[in-house]
Amino acid sequence: CETCSKEAAKYRCPRCMKYSCSLLCVKKHKLALSCNGVRDKTAFVSVNEFTDLNLLSDYRFLEDVGRTADAAARHCIVHSPATKRLLYCLRNKARGCNIELKTLPVGFTKRRENSTTFNSMENKFYWHLKLIFPHCHAEYTLKGVPDDKTLADILKPYIDPLESDPVVCQRLKIYTASPQSDVRILMKIENRNRNSVRYNELDASRSLLDNLKGKVIIEYPTLFVVLKTLKNDMVVLGQDGSEPAENSDSESSSLSSVEEGEIRDSS
User: Fold this and answer.
1) Which of 195, 197, 180, 202 is nearest to 234 (CA)?
2) Of 246, 125, 233, 126, which is closest to residue 188 (Cα–Cα)?
3) CA nearest 156: which of 137, 176, 136?
4) Gap between the Cα atoms of 178 and 198, Å rounded
5) pLDDT along the chain (267 residues), means of 10
6) Which helix (DSSP H) or strand (DSSP E) does residue 141 occupy?
């Protein structure tokens, strides 16, 4: 058992492949790793390990996608004039701020979750925002975040040792114990091939709106908070949009390779 390290393992989690000996250990591992226990149907499988079961699983997954897309296309809200006007307004206002905002059809998780609004009186976006802390396997959803708020202020309730909630502080201990200079805020670059995932590094001292300008957003921004001193698998493009050098060290603009698992469902 990878949870208690005392008893012989009887179960294996379909999601993260962790071994457990009992229901109690299964619940503990789900809580510790924020694991839902549901098998990832889109997990990468190498050609050497690909079997008939994987082929059947992929076929059923594509059938499910087809049914979901068909049901979404038939949904009455899709054809609602009020919904179309609201989405058009959001996209148009975002375009005026040099942000390419894309929305998904009804039925997609991110479309259902999105609570982003635009206040015409204040001429300001109030964003739906997701924060992901990969080193602690934690993520948080924020609603109604004003676009003039700096990223540093947005992160304070999570990684500031004095202002963060005690429960959150304990869960994100590795972040709160690190100096603020080690914190990097990354956002995935959309419209790239799956085998070429790249990230932009954002400026914590600037507002959310300034950081989103010139970028493509699908429904709402998702920010990854990482530490320079810890290895992760995200490749960060340089300030000029160029690919990072292969031999750069851990404190340069690039990190080692690519990983795209955290928000697979929502994209």
Assistant:
1) 197
2) 233
3) 176
4) 25
5) 90 88 89 84 85 88 85 63 78 90 83 88 91 89 91 89 82 85 88 81 91 91 88 63 49 37 39
6) strand 138-146
DSSP string, 195-226: GG--EEEE-TTSBHHHHHTT-EEESS-EEEEE
Task: Decide if 111 contacts 72 (C-beta within 8 A).
Answer: no
Nearest to 188 by CA among 260, 242, 238: 260
Sign of CA dihedral 223, 225, 231, 235: positive
Query: 6: Cβ–Cβ under 8 A, 6 or more apart, which residues?
Result: 21
Residues 60 and 91 in one domain: no
CATH number of the structural domain spanning residue 135: 3.10.20.90
Domain hosting 207: range is 76-227
